[in-house]
Amino acid sequence: MSSNLQTISQEVLELERSLNERWSVGDSHGYLDNYHADISYFDPALERLLVGRDAVVEHIQKLYKNPHIVRNEYLNPHVLASDAGDLAVLSYNLRTYVAAEHGGETLLRAWNATEVYRRIAGAWRIVHSNWAITQSMTTASAS
Questions:
Q1: pLDDT band at residue 139 using 50, 70 and 90 as cut-offs
Q2: DSSP code, position 47
Q3: Exposed, middle or buried by CB within 10 Å (0-12, 13-18, 19+), for 122?
Q4: What are phi and psi of 135, to 5 degrees?
Q5: Which of 48, 78, 90, 116 gives a 20 to 30 Å CA spacing to 16?
């Protein structure tokens, strides 16, 4: 891995974690404020692509409530970056945990996440976001 890719990977991973940690404790504005004006957004709750920050913010604000997540696991992170170093694609698996009724933790959700970041005016901004709920399938299928 080149030092430029290492630096970009570290920056993007740290930013993504900071945005997600805010989300986990009831502050959705980390993500919402980072979204670029022309973001495209796939949400598993919708059948269509959302385009534009205003549409994404409106959608999320209708659904969002503090998930009270006590722990996140960021698994298998992978970053690809453009040769120019101004575009980065982050893909990872996220497992979120909440407090269990009788102590300990319980898995809330498992996600497959892809975020496309673009460096704009020196700051990484999300220009595309795709969240998919991980599901167990009894039979593998490509359809």
A1: low
A2: S
A3: exposed
A4: -130, 145
A5: 48
Residue 94 lies in a domain: yes
Percent of the chain with pLDDT over 70: 92
HSE-up of residue 23 (Cα within 13 Å, Cβ side): 17
133's torsion region: left (phi>0), alpha (psi -120 to 50) or beta? Answer: beta
Domain assignment of residue 142, yes or no? no
Residue 37 token pair: 């004006």
Q: Give the mean model confidence (pLDDT) for residues 100-107.
A: 94
Asked if 71 and 98 touch (Cβ cutoff 8 Å), the reply is no
Asked whether residue 26 carries a pLDDT value surpassing 80, the answer given is: yes
From residue 21, give the alpha-carbon distance in Å to each of 24, 60, 86, 90: 5, 16, 24, 16
**Cα–Cα distance, 94 to 97 (Å, whole number):** 10
Q: Is residue 107 part of a domain?
A: yes
**Is 29 inside a domain boundary?**
yes
Structure tokens, 70: 């006590």
**Stated pTM of the model:** 0.90
Which CATH number belongs to the domain containing residue 21 in this structure?
3.10.450.50
| Residue 111: closest CA among 88, 97, 93 | 93
Number of domains in the chain: 1
